[in-house]
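[Automated response] Your request has been received and processed.

Submitted sequence:
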Amino acid sequence: GNLKQVEISCLSTIFNEQQAIQMVVYDLTPKYEAEREKRKLKLLLEEKALYQHELEYRKSVQKQLVETQKFMRSLIENSIDIICANEVSDKIVEFNPAAENAFGYKRREVIGKPASFLFGSEEKIVLDILTENILHMDDIIKLSGFSAQEILPVVTKLELEGFIKKINTKYTRA
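Generated structure:
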């Protein structure tokens, strides 16, 4: 019932005093099965080597990531500049010691809170106005309802602290 791979060799001979052909049939199935198993083993060994290389690479990358995170943490913690980072959702995700000194809050008190938590009412209004707008100072004054004398120091402070930025003659959230 099963197909077999065979090799046939023929040899001219004399049998019972007559010309005859001696045929020898070799079953090659074990040989081919052994070769197939050898190829499978080779593929498995190659896959294992690739897996080990990938594993070593991942460990190396993970180690570099940990070292980079330590370095970044050190930079943030030791910076004399205020570092206060927030997500797109406006939740504070980073707050360094310089920010603690400037705002008077501990890191644990502000992480996860909206950035507006840190500001007075004028500052909150300016940040809200600039959330989706790029505006001239005159427009900020009109929309805020405060006078130029009240808003100018607020805008200057927010710009110096890096919460807003000036692009040509207009202001926007940083």
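Summary generated for your ticket: The CA atoms of residues 3 and 29 lie 9 Å apart. The longest strand covers residues 6-15.
If you did not submit this request, please reply to this message.
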